[in-house]
Design goal:
By secondary structure, the protein is low in regular secondary structure. The protein has three helices and three strands; from the N terminus they run H-H-E-E-E-H. Strands 1-2-3 form a three-stranded antiparallel sheet. Strand 2 (about 55-60) and strand 3 (about 65-70) form a beta hairpin. The longest helix has 9 residues, at about 100-105. The N and C termini lie far apart (about 60 Å). About 10% of the residues are buried.
Length: about 140
Amino acid sequence: MKERPERAAVPMCAIAPEVFGEAIFELSCEAYKHLGKTSNYYWIDPDGSGTLGPLKVYCNMTEDKVWTTVYHDLQMQTAMGGNSPDKFSVLQLNYSATMDQISAITSSAEYCEQFISYSCKMSRLLNTPEKLISTSSDF
């Protein structure tokens, strides 16, 4: 009688690629452009069959560039309260992707940017030596 092998603590399996066929999502917006797609929302999987899941992005296809936009939960304009040093506001952006997914996208990009605009009537932000605004980025 054959001995039964012990089971691993973590289930592992190897699946031949032909079982599932082609990947469901493209790696990038650039890949969708090469397929003849136009500007629209698409699901991308920036690490292919790696551990990161797919994410929905907006692919803006221009004649010479392809822009990938990852959205956050902040409205176009957000009213902030506070008008003195002891009444300040903190704003946190929550993106539709994890930092690992964003890193996978930005690591293969030629150029990346994040744009945040601040406007306020009678603001001292631009006319004060104190640091009233702080930004950070892990890109």
